Amino acid sequence: MSxxxxxxxxxxxxxxxxYGFCKQGELHFQRCxxxxxxxxxPRELCAECGSWDWEWARSSGRGEVYTWTVVGxxxxxxxxxxxxxxxxxxxxxxxxRLLSEVLDVAPEALEIGMPVEVVFEAVTDEITLPKFKxxxxx
Length: 138
Ligand SMILES: [Zn+2]
Fold this sequence. Notes:
By secondary structure, this protein is mainly β. The protein has one domain. 8% of the residues lie in helices and 31% in strands. The chain has a five-stranded antiparallel sheet. A three-stranded antiparallel sheet has the order 2-1-3. The chain starts with 12 loop residues before the first helix and ends with a strand. Zinc ion binds at residues 32, 34-35, 37, 46, 48-49, 51. Residues 32, 34-35, 37, 46, 48-49, 51 line the site of zinc ion.
């Protein structure tokens, strides 16, 4: 593995737990214990019902392309070699949205609603990032 030079998440608080699950090859999000609403990014309070009670729950890892943008000119030197690339918002089956990337689809071939599923990319010994691959429509 060549050295990974892109910015990495800070492993603290709930973010540390989120990436801990990713390292195990599982995607987990917070789910409200009172009303069952899933949420991401990690936070203390349910935006739906105001409850402080929540648990980590495992996502199916399946979802679809919600939206994306194409970056043609890197705003950070570490992304220079990746251009053009498409930061993509994935909407998971549970309703939460995650900013990621679809690895096996070129930016110009992305489509809203394209079915995708999570794959995990270990970019350092510490950090594993959730990325996505296209799945055939059923
Ligand atoms: Zn709630």
